[in-house]
Every structure is written in C-alpha cells, then in structure tokens.
Amino acid sequence: MYIVLLGPPGAGKGTQAQIIAREFGLTHVSSGDLFRENLKNQTELGKLAQGYMNRGELVPDDVTIAMVKERISRSDCANGALLDGFPRTPAQADALAGMLAELGGKVHCVPYISVPAEVLIERLGGRWTCPQCGRVYHEKYNPPRTAGVCDDDGATLIQRDDDKAETVERRIRVYMEQTMPLIEYYRRQGLLVEVDGTKSIEEVSRDILAAIRKG
Length: 215
Ligand code: ADP
Ligand code: AMP
What we know:
Elements: E1 2-5, H1 13-24, E2 27-30, H2 31-40, H3 44-55, H4 61-72, E3 81-84, H5 90-102, E4 107-114, H6 117-125, E5 127-129, E6 136-138, H7 165-179, H8 181-188, E7 192-196, H9 201-214
The chain binds adenosine-5'-diphosphate and adenosine monophosphate.
C-alpha cells in the first residue's frame, strides 16, 4: 500500500506520517528528511541540495527522483510506504507511478491536507524538530513534555534554517506554483481525498485514517 501525503509546507504531513505509518506498519519516506540526512553527512547529494533548500526552492527533479527511487526499492518498502514531501512536481508524480509499477505496486490513496497560508506561517514559525529522529513539535500546539527536548530520545530540539519567515514565504510560493498542480493530477485519477488540516492533530489523523481505509 503506497500512500502519498500531499499538502503545503507546514500542513502537518510529517506529524501525520508518523502516526499513520505506525497504524498501518508502513515505512515513512520523507524526501526532506533524506535530503537533511545527506546534508548532515556532507554527501555530494547533500552539498548539491543545500543551496536549493536554504533558498526554499525545490531540488531538481532528476536528483530527487533518483534519491527516492533508491529509497523505495529497499526491502522495507516492498509492501508499501507512506510518502511525505514527494512527489512535489508532475514530473516526480509520473516518475513515482513508473517506479511503483516496477515494484508491482501503485498509489493507493492521496490524502491532501489543506491549510490556508496564514496558518502555515504560524505553524512553521513555532516548529521544533528533533535532529536525531525527525519528530516534529510545535511550541504551542504540540509541545514536548520538557521544553526543547525530544520526548522519544532526549535530543535537543532545533529550529530548521528554512523555517525563517522569509524562506517560509518562498516555500509557500514554490508550493503554489510547482506542487499545487498535483491536486488536480491525483483528483483526475480518483485518488485525492481532501482533509481539513486546520483541525486538531487527532482529528486530522482520524480523517486521514478513515480516507485510507475507504480508499
Ligand atoms: P509538514 O511536514 O507538512 O511541513 P509538520 O508535520 O512538520 O508539517 O507540521 C508543521 C508544524 O505544525 C509543526 O510544528 C507541528 O507540530 C504543527 N502541527 C501539525 N499539525 C497540526 C495541527 N493539526 N494543528 C496544529 N499544529 C499542527
Ligand atoms: P520538507 O522537509 O518536505 O519541508 O523539505 C525541505 C526542503 O527539501 C524543500 O524546501 C526542498 O528544498 C527539498 N525537497 C524535499 N522534498 C523535495 C522534492 N520532492 N522535490 C524537490 N525538493 C524537495
């Protein structure tokens, strides 16, 4: 079962992906986390991606597609995966369909978490991320038990460089121009299920789980 979580930056894709992956026993594949891992390890791919990420732009399709293809061809994705942050362009969506066909699978359902821009800015401004496990928190809406410390592994939480106000605006613009066409792309295929992402984390999870079970 391959599921694509669609939505603007800050919609709650990473937050929901962790909950849903656990519920269905699926591997969570986040293209943003893969890039950040490459950046941390200073790989060639990480160095290439860095400039794009800092500017809030998309990393070019060819390298992004190759990175995700390598990841989902590993054995822990053989029975499915939950894709978060990929695809982000129609070319990536076509490539995904091709790679899943090679694995004998297809996209099962595309929950689209819809959230207006002004809410996104507040969410990203208050987001704190665990550099060790990738879990995300919000200082107001989803705080850790101890401020600044990850509940799961005790690591010190950080604020992402690309969550600064000016980069956030750029990322939202890039989303509108390059990723929003995917809403129609998946709607035409009968796979899109729109979920109101302004509700609480628990309510959004409930709506996404219901959509997947129906899909
Ligand atoms: P994305 O992966 O789509 O960029 P995240 O899952 O990282 O989004 O969520 C962005 C921020 O919003 C985080 O700080 C997260 O804790 C918070 N958040 C996520 N879902 C909700 C929600 N339903 N209500 C309030 N805050 C939320
Ligand atoms: P995210 O963690 O999903 O917010 O992604 C952080 C950054 O990584 C984005 O702003 C892009 O620069 C890059 N990135 C992540 N996923 C993709 C993708 N599918 N295509 C291109 N760039 C991506």
